[in-house]
Fold this protein.
Amino acid sequence: MSDAARVFVVDDDQSMRESLRFLLEAAGFAVETFASARAFLDAGGAAKSGCLVADVRMPEMNGLALQEKLAADGSRLPVILMTGHADVPMAVSAMRAGAADFIEKPFADEALIASIRRALARAPERERPAAPAAVPAEVAERMARLTPREREVLDHLVRGSQHKVIAHELGISPRTIEVHRAHIMQKMEARNLAHLVRLVLSGDDEAGKG
């Protein structure tokens, strides 16, 4: 199988590594697993092609640090981060720094497979110098539906701020933030926070199709 369909899984949880190997091989990918970010880097990770799926929370070097190291080494490998709810702000920061996607646990098998396929399909674009992203008219129209307060909340969400932090800065309750977030997701036609971040940062609506 070619490198274009190769997936590298980095997770310190052995059972998760084995589960993902079984899932992704059944989906037709060639899979290599690593127990740590350092093991992946020592195996020449920065020079590999395909797609990297890494857990955000790992000892010694977490998923975000791994992504930053790969970028510093000139790697164009698309990175998908698996994250728990408490780590969503970190994952949003990773997307702003260039990660292809993040998947919030627990996730559906199909969601991860679809994310990997999108990342692999876009991989050639990463070989070209990035141009400033223009938000498509359709996405701009969705953003125009937001109230001024919803736009404020959206700006904080895309920065990776937690609900309690947003509530404190805007002088409203966390529950009100949750209501605003629900309205934002509906108006932006976003399936999840990762999709919302992609829409705002690059106008990428691939996750919302199909």
User: Anything to note?
Assistant: The chain has ten helices and five strands. Confidence is low (pLDDT under 50) at residues 126-132. The two ends are 27 Å apart (CA to CA).
